[in-house]
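Hey, I was hoping to borrow your eyes for a little while. I'm sending you its amino acid sequence along with the C-alpha coordinates. Take your time with it, there's no hurry, and the full record follows here.
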Amino acid sequence: MNKNPITLMKPEVVAMKQQAIFAFNARAKSMDHVINMTIGEPNFPTPKHIKEAAIKAINDNQTHYTVPEGNHKVLKAISNYLNKKYDLDYDPESQIITTGGVTEGVFSTFNAILQPGDEVLIPSPSFTIYGPDAKFNKANPIYLDTSKSNFKVTPDALRRVLDEHKKIKIFMFNYPSNPTGVSYTEDELRALANILKDYDIFVLSDEIYSELVYNGKHVAFPKLLPDQTILLNGLSKSHAMTGWRFGIVCGPKDIIAEINKIHELATTSISSISQQAALEAYTNGFDDPISMREKYRERRDVLYAGLKKIGFNCPVPDGAFYLFAKIPENINQDDVQLANDILDEECLAILPGSFFGAGGEGYLRLSYAASMEDIEGCLAKLADYAKMHSQATV
Protein backbone atom coordinates (compact mmCIF):
# COMPACT_ATOMS: atom_id res chain seq x y z
CA MET A 1 0.00 0.00 0.00
CA ASN A 2 0.99 3.61 -0.54
CA LYS A 3 3.26 4.74 2.30
CA ASN A 4 0.81 7.58 2.92
CA PRO A 5 -2.65 5.95 2.72
CA ILE A 6 -4.28 9.25 3.68
CA THR A 7 -3.77 10.27 0.03
CA LEU A 8 -6.36 7.66 -0.90
CA MET A 9 -8.99 9.36 1.20
CA LYS A 10 -11.63 11.70 -0.17
CA PRO A 11 -9.98 15.16 -0.45
CA GLU A 12 -13.07 16.95 0.88
CA VAL A 13 -12.82 14.90 4.08
CA VAL A 14 -9.07 15.32 4.49
CA ALA A 15 -9.48 19.08 4.10
CA MET A 16 -12.02 19.22 6.92
CA LYS A 17 -10.96 20.39 10.35
CA GLN A 18 -12.42 19.32 13.64
CA GLN A 19 -15.20 21.65 14.70
CA ALA A 20 -13.56 24.37 16.80
CA ILE A 21 -16.42 24.12 19.30
CA PHE A 22 -15.59 20.47 20.02
CA ALA A 23 -11.89 21.16 20.46
CA PHE A 24 -12.58 24.04 22.84
CA ASN A 25 -15.04 21.98 24.86
CA ALA A 26 -12.56 19.11 25.06
CA ARG A 27 -10.02 21.49 26.58
CA ALA A 28 -12.60 22.81 29.04
CA LYS A 29 -13.58 19.28 30.07
CA SER A 30 -9.96 18.38 30.72
CA MET A 31 -9.82 21.04 33.44
CA ASP A 32 -11.23 20.87 36.97
CA HIS A 33 -14.02 23.03 38.41
CA VAL A 34 -14.96 24.74 35.14
CA ILE A 35 -18.31 26.51 34.77
CA ASN A 36 -19.32 25.56 31.26
CA MET A 37 -21.52 28.07 29.44
CA THR A 38 -20.90 26.60 25.98
CA ILE A 39 -23.31 23.69 25.90
CA GLY A 40 -26.19 24.00 23.44
CA GLU A 41 -28.54 21.55 25.09
CA PRO A 42 -31.23 21.74 27.77
CA ASN A 43 -30.08 20.98 31.29
CA PHE A 44 -33.54 19.59 32.07
CA PRO A 45 -34.33 15.87 32.10
CA THR A 46 -36.51 14.39 29.39
CA PRO A 47 -40.12 14.51 30.72
CA LYS A 48 -41.02 11.45 32.76
CA HIS A 49 -43.95 10.31 30.59
CA ILE A 50 -41.65 10.22 27.54
CA LYS A 51 -39.03 8.14 29.35
CA GLU A 52 -41.72 5.77 30.57
CA ALA A 53 -42.99 5.31 27.00
CA ALA A 54 -39.48 4.37 25.90
CA ILE A 55 -39.07 1.91 28.76
CA LYS A 56 -42.40 0.32 27.87
CA ALA A 57 -41.30 0.03 24.24
CA ILE A 58 -38.19 -1.86 25.33
CA ASN A 59 -40.16 -4.15 27.61
CA ASP A 60 -42.65 -4.76 24.78
CA ASN A 61 -39.75 -5.73 22.48
CA GLN A 62 -40.29 -2.87 20.06
CA THR A 63 -36.60 -3.08 19.28
CA HIS A 64 -36.49 -3.77 15.55
CA TYR A 65 -36.06 -1.88 12.30
CA THR A 66 -38.81 0.41 11.13
CA VAL A 67 -39.22 1.63 7.56
CA PRO A 68 -36.62 4.30 6.74
CA GLU A 69 -38.98 7.27 6.92
CA GLY A 70 -40.18 6.14 10.35
CA ASN A 71 -42.97 4.32 12.13
CA HIS A 72 -46.20 5.47 10.52
CA LYS A 73 -47.92 6.05 13.86
CA VAL A 74 -45.06 8.42 14.68
CA LEU A 75 -45.37 10.18 11.32
CA LYS A 76 -49.10 10.68 11.87
CA ALA A 77 -48.45 12.11 15.34
CA ILE A 78 -45.84 14.49 13.91
CA SER A 79 -48.26 15.65 11.23
CA ASN A 80 -50.94 16.33 13.83
CA TYR A 81 -48.49 18.15 16.13
CA LEU A 82 -47.22 20.43 13.36
CA ASN A 83 -50.77 21.18 12.28
CA LYS A 84 -51.92 22.16 15.76
CA LYS A 85 -48.76 24.06 16.68
CA TYR A 86 -47.90 25.83 13.43
CA ASP A 87 -50.90 25.35 11.12
CA LEU A 88 -48.82 23.20 8.74
CA ASP A 89 -50.41 20.50 6.61
CA TYR A 90 -48.00 17.64 5.89
CA ASP A 91 -49.16 14.25 4.65
CA PRO A 92 -47.68 11.69 7.11
CA GLU A 93 -47.40 9.09 4.36
CA SER A 94 -45.31 11.12 1.94
CA GLN A 95 -44.05 14.45 3.33
CA ILE A 96 -42.22 13.60 6.56
CA ILE A 97 -38.99 11.72 7.37
CA THR A 98 -37.65 10.96 10.84
CA THR A 99 -33.89 11.57 11.08
CA GLY A 100 -31.03 11.23 13.53
CA GLY A 101 -31.49 14.79 14.72
CA VAL A 102 -31.41 17.95 12.62
CA THR A 103 -27.71 17.30 11.99
CA GLU A 104 -28.52 14.23 9.89
CA GLY A 105 -31.42 16.10 8.33
CA VAL A 106 -29.06 18.78 7.03
CA PHE A 107 -26.54 16.20 5.86
CA SER A 108 -29.08 14.06 3.98
CA THR A 109 -30.81 17.07 2.43
CA PHE A 110 -27.55 18.63 1.23
CA ASN A 111 -26.45 15.30 -0.20
CA ALA A 112 -29.73 14.92 -2.07
CA ILE A 113 -29.72 18.41 -3.57
CA LEU A 114 -26.22 19.78 -4.04
CA GLN A 115 -23.91 19.24 -7.00
CA PRO A 116 -20.28 20.36 -7.39
CA GLY A 117 -20.15 24.09 -7.97
CA ASP A 118 -23.52 24.85 -6.41
CA GLU A 119 -23.72 27.54 -3.75
CA VAL A 120 -25.41 27.59 -0.34
CA LEU A 121 -26.41 30.94 1.13
CA ILE A 122 -25.80 31.00 4.89
CA PRO A 123 -26.64 34.02 7.07
CA SER A 124 -23.74 34.51 9.44
CA PRO A 125 -22.97 34.13 12.32
CA SER A 126 -24.45 30.64 11.98
CA PHE A 127 -24.53 27.14 13.39
CA THR A 128 -21.20 25.58 12.55
CA ILE A 129 -22.17 22.49 10.49
CA TYR A 130 -23.78 24.22 7.53
CA GLY A 131 -20.61 25.38 5.76
CA PRO A 132 -18.67 22.11 6.16
CA ASP A 133 -21.71 20.14 4.96
CA ALA A 134 -21.80 22.28 1.81
CA LYS A 135 -18.07 21.82 1.20
CA PHE A 136 -18.36 18.07 1.69
CA ASN A 137 -20.69 18.10 -1.32
CA LYS A 138 -18.22 20.24 -3.34
CA ALA A 139 -20.57 23.20 -3.04
CA ASN A 140 -19.51 26.67 -1.98
CA PRO A 141 -20.92 28.34 1.14
CA ILE A 142 -21.78 32.01 0.60
CA TYR A 143 -21.89 33.80 3.94
CA LEU A 144 -24.15 36.79 4.41
CA ASP A 145 -22.83 38.88 7.32
CA THR A 146 -25.80 40.04 9.41
CA SER A 147 -23.83 41.75 12.18
CA LYS A 148 -24.71 45.23 10.88
CA SER A 149 -28.46 44.53 10.76
CA ASN A 150 -29.05 43.24 14.30
CA PHE A 151 -28.18 39.72 13.14
CA LYS A 152 -31.18 39.52 10.83
CA VAL A 153 -31.36 38.99 7.09
CA THR A 154 -32.89 42.07 5.46
CA PRO A 155 -34.88 41.89 2.21
CA ASP A 156 -32.45 44.21 0.43
CA ALA A 157 -29.41 42.18 1.46
CA LEU A 158 -31.12 38.94 0.49
CA ARG A 159 -32.03 40.15 -2.99
CA ARG A 160 -28.59 41.62 -3.53
CA VAL A 161 -26.74 38.40 -2.71
CA LEU A 162 -29.17 36.28 -4.76
CA ASP A 163 -28.60 38.53 -7.76
CA GLU A 164 -24.82 38.46 -7.29
CA HIS A 165 -24.55 34.68 -6.91
CA LYS A 166 -26.40 32.85 -9.65
CA LYS A 167 -25.46 29.36 -8.45
CA ILE A 168 -27.19 29.51 -5.08
CA LYS A 169 -29.37 26.43 -4.78
CA ILE A 170 -30.14 26.47 -1.03
CA PHE A 171 -30.87 29.31 1.36
CA MET A 172 -29.90 27.84 4.75
CA PHE A 173 -32.17 29.62 7.25
CA ASN A 174 -32.15 29.15 11.03
CA TYR A 175 -34.45 30.90 13.47
CA PRO A 176 -34.58 31.40 16.39
CA SER A 177 -30.88 31.53 15.75
CA ASN A 178 -27.96 29.65 17.13
CA PRO A 179 -25.75 31.53 18.08
CA THR A 180 -27.56 34.89 18.44
CA GLY A 181 -31.02 33.96 19.71
CA VAL A 182 -32.71 36.42 17.32
CA SER A 183 -35.87 35.49 15.49
CA TYR A 184 -38.28 37.07 13.00
CA THR A 185 -41.80 38.45 13.03
CA GLU A 186 -44.35 37.18 10.51
CA ASP A 187 -44.02 40.43 8.53
CA GLU A 188 -40.24 40.07 8.39
CA LEU A 189 -40.53 36.46 7.24
CA ARG A 190 -43.15 37.34 4.65
CA ALA A 191 -40.88 40.01 3.20
CA LEU A 192 -38.12 37.42 2.75
CA ALA A 193 -40.55 34.88 1.29
CA ASN A 194 -41.76 37.42 -1.26
CA ILE A 195 -38.20 37.74 -2.54
CA LEU A 196 -37.30 34.04 -2.43
CA LYS A 197 -40.34 33.05 -4.51
CA ASP A 198 -38.75 34.85 -7.46
CA TYR A 199 -35.70 32.58 -7.43
CA ASP A 200 -35.28 28.92 -8.32
CA ILE A 201 -33.84 27.83 -4.98
CA PHE A 202 -34.77 25.79 -1.93
CA VAL A 203 -35.16 27.22 1.55
CA LEU A 204 -33.85 24.77 4.14
CA SER A 205 -35.42 26.15 7.32
CA ASP A 206 -33.87 24.90 10.57
CA GLU A 207 -36.53 25.65 13.20
CA ILE A 208 -35.30 23.36 15.97
CA TYR A 209 -35.81 26.17 18.53
CA SER A 210 -39.40 26.88 17.46
CA GLU A 211 -40.81 25.99 20.90
CA LEU A 212 -38.38 28.33 22.65
CA VAL A 213 -39.77 31.69 21.51
CA TYR A 214 -40.26 34.31 24.21
CA ASN A 215 -42.30 36.98 22.45
CA GLY A 216 -45.34 36.06 20.40
CA LYS A 217 -45.74 32.83 18.49
CA HIS A 218 -43.27 31.15 16.17
CA VAL A 219 -44.26 31.38 12.51
CA ALA A 220 -43.04 28.46 10.42
CA PHE A 221 -41.46 29.44 7.11
CA PRO A 222 -43.15 26.66 5.07
CA LYS A 223 -46.47 28.30 5.95
CA LEU A 224 -45.35 31.27 3.84
CA LEU A 225 -43.46 29.47 1.06
CA PRO A 226 -44.58 25.81 1.04
CA ASP A 227 -43.46 24.77 -2.43
CA GLN A 228 -39.82 25.82 -1.91
CA THR A 229 -39.30 25.16 1.79
CA ILE A 230 -37.86 22.06 3.43
CA LEU A 231 -38.49 22.16 7.18
CA LEU A 232 -36.06 20.83 9.78
CA ASN A 233 -37.23 20.35 13.34
CA GLY A 234 -37.21 17.79 16.15
CA LEU A 235 -37.42 17.19 19.88
CA SER A 236 -33.88 17.93 21.06
CA LYS A 237 -34.49 21.44 22.35
CA SER A 238 -38.25 21.52 22.90
CA HIS A 239 -38.47 18.33 24.98
CA ALA A 240 -34.90 18.06 26.33
CA MET A 241 -34.18 15.03 24.13
CA THR A 242 -30.77 15.75 22.59
CA GLY A 243 -29.47 12.26 23.32
CA TRP A 244 -32.45 10.54 21.71
CA ARG A 245 -31.31 11.88 18.30
CA PHE A 246 -34.76 12.53 16.92
CA GLY A 247 -35.30 15.00 14.10
CA ILE A 248 -37.69 15.49 11.23
CA VAL A 249 -37.49 16.67 7.64
CA CYS A 250 -40.73 17.82 6.01
CA GLY A 251 -41.51 19.25 2.60
CA PRO A 252 -43.04 18.76 -0.83
CA LYS A 253 -43.78 15.11 -1.58
CA ASP A 254 -41.44 14.70 -4.55
CA ILE A 255 -38.52 16.35 -2.73
CA ILE A 256 -38.97 14.30 0.43
CA ALA A 257 -38.93 11.10 -1.61
CA GLU A 258 -35.48 12.00 -2.96
CA ILE A 259 -34.09 13.02 0.44
CA ASN A 260 -35.36 9.73 1.86
CA LYS A 261 -33.10 7.84 -0.56
CA ILE A 262 -30.05 9.42 1.08
CA HIS A 263 -31.50 9.06 4.57
CA GLU A 264 -31.99 5.32 4.19
CA LEU A 265 -28.42 4.89 2.93
CA ALA A 266 -27.14 6.77 5.98
CA THR A 267 -29.25 5.16 8.68
CA THR A 268 -31.60 2.39 7.41
CA SER A 269 -33.93 3.78 10.07
CA ILE A 270 -33.44 5.68 13.30
CA SER A 271 -33.78 4.04 16.72
CA SER A 272 -37.14 2.35 17.20
CA ILE A 273 -37.00 3.24 20.90
CA SER A 274 -36.44 6.91 20.12
CA GLN A 275 -39.40 6.76 17.77
CA GLN A 276 -41.66 5.41 20.53
CA ALA A 277 -40.45 8.18 22.83
CA ALA A 278 -41.21 10.67 20.05
CA LEU A 279 -44.68 9.21 19.60
CA GLU A 280 -45.40 9.99 23.24
CA ALA A 281 -43.86 13.48 22.98
CA TYR A 282 -45.85 14.41 19.88
CA THR A 283 -49.08 12.88 21.26
CA ASN A 284 -49.10 13.87 24.92
CA GLY A 285 -46.27 16.37 25.23
CA PHE A 286 -47.84 19.48 23.71
CA ASP A 287 -47.28 21.48 26.88
CA ASP A 288 -43.91 20.03 27.91
CA PRO A 289 -41.88 22.97 26.54
CA ILE A 290 -43.83 25.62 28.47
CA SER A 291 -42.24 25.27 31.91
CA MET A 292 -38.76 24.90 30.40
CA ARG A 293 -39.29 28.00 28.26
CA GLU A 294 -40.26 30.07 31.29
CA LYS A 295 -37.17 28.91 33.18
CA TYR A 296 -35.02 29.88 30.21
CA ARG A 297 -36.67 33.30 30.12
CA GLU A 298 -35.77 33.85 33.79
CA ARG A 299 -32.18 32.78 33.17
CA ARG A 300 -31.95 34.95 30.05
CA ASP A 301 -33.05 38.02 31.96
CA VAL A 302 -30.57 37.44 34.80
CA LEU A 303 -27.67 36.78 32.42
CA TYR A 304 -28.55 39.69 30.14
CA ALA A 305 -28.78 42.18 33.03
CA GLY A 306 -25.54 40.92 34.52
CA LEU A 307 -23.66 41.16 31.23
CA LYS A 308 -24.91 44.70 30.64
CA LYS A 309 -23.69 45.69 34.09
CA ILE A 310 -20.20 44.37 33.29
CA GLY A 311 -20.16 46.20 29.94
CA PHE A 312 -21.16 43.52 27.42
CA ASN A 313 -23.77 44.58 24.87
CA CYS A 314 -25.97 42.08 23.07
CA PRO A 315 -29.38 41.80 21.45
CA VAL A 316 -32.10 40.53 23.78
CA PRO A 317 -32.72 36.99 22.48
CA ASP A 318 -36.17 36.36 20.99
CA GLY A 319 -35.70 32.62 21.39
CA ALA A 320 -33.33 29.66 21.84
CA PHE A 321 -31.02 29.87 24.87
CA TYR A 322 -27.98 31.88 23.80
CA LEU A 323 -26.69 35.39 24.35
CA PHE A 324 -24.29 36.75 21.74
CA ALA A 325 -22.36 39.37 23.65
CA LYS A 326 -20.17 42.13 22.18
CA ILE A 327 -16.84 42.32 23.99
CA PRO A 328 -16.39 45.67 25.79
CA GLU A 329 -13.96 48.00 24.03
CA ASN A 330 -11.62 48.12 27.01
CA ILE A 331 -11.03 44.35 26.91
CA ASN A 332 -9.04 42.33 24.37
CA GLN A 333 -11.09 42.20 21.15
CA ASP A 334 -9.55 38.94 19.93
CA ASP A 335 -12.46 36.71 20.91
CA VAL A 336 -10.54 33.44 20.52
CA GLN A 337 -7.64 34.59 22.69
CA LEU A 338 -10.07 36.16 25.15
CA ALA A 339 -12.16 32.98 25.51
CA ASN A 340 -9.02 30.93 26.10
CA ASP A 341 -7.68 33.46 28.64
CA ILE A 342 -11.01 33.43 30.53
CA LEU A 343 -10.92 29.64 30.58
CA ASP A 344 -7.34 29.59 31.90
CA GLU A 345 -7.69 32.36 34.46
CA GLU A 346 -11.30 32.01 35.62
CA CYS A 347 -12.17 28.37 34.83
CA LEU A 348 -15.10 29.70 32.81
CA ALA A 349 -15.87 28.26 29.36
CA ILE A 350 -17.49 30.63 26.85
CA LEU A 351 -17.33 30.20 23.08
CA PRO A 352 -15.63 32.75 20.80
CA GLY A 353 -18.08 34.39 18.41
CA SER A 354 -15.75 33.91 15.45
CA PHE A 355 -16.27 30.14 15.74
CA PHE A 356 -19.67 30.89 14.18
CA GLY A 357 -18.29 32.65 11.13
CA ALA A 358 -18.31 36.10 9.56
CA GLY A 359 -19.80 38.76 11.81
CA GLY A 360 -18.98 36.84 14.96
CA GLU A 361 -15.58 38.41 15.51
CA GLY A 362 -15.40 40.37 18.76
CA TYR A 363 -18.31 38.52 20.35
CA LEU A 364 -18.73 35.70 22.86
CA ARG A 365 -21.59 33.18 22.87
CA LEU A 366 -22.98 32.20 26.24
CA SER A 367 -25.55 29.43 26.69
CA TYR A 368 -28.09 29.95 29.45
CA ALA A 369 -29.18 26.32 29.26
CA ALA A 370 -27.45 26.18 32.62
CA SER A 371 -28.41 26.37 36.27
CA MET A 372 -29.00 29.74 37.89
CA GLU A 373 -26.07 28.94 40.15
CA ASP A 374 -23.78 28.56 37.13
CA ILE A 375 -25.16 31.74 35.56
CA GLU A 376 -24.42 33.72 38.72
CA GLY A 377 -20.98 32.11 38.93
CA CYS A 378 -20.32 32.99 35.31
CA LEU A 379 -21.21 36.64 35.90
CA ALA A 380 -18.97 36.83 38.95
CA LYS A 381 -16.05 35.35 37.03
CA LEU A 382 -16.58 37.66 34.04
CA ALA A 383 -16.78 40.68 36.33
CA ASP A 384 -13.53 39.61 38.00
CA TYR A 385 -11.83 39.15 34.64
CA ALA A 386 -13.08 42.50 33.32
CA LYS A 387 -11.85 44.27 36.45
CA MET A 388 -8.41 42.70 36.16
CA HIS A 389 -8.00 43.34 32.42
CA SER A 390 -9.98 46.50 31.74
CA GLN A 391 -6.81 48.41 30.77
CA ALA A 392 -5.71 45.81 28.20
CA THR A 393 -7.26 47.59 25.24
CA VAL A 394 -6.57 46.46 21.70
Q: What stands out?
A: The radius of gyration is 21 Å. The domain at 62-284 is CATH 3.40.640.10 (Aspartate Aminotransferase; domain 2).
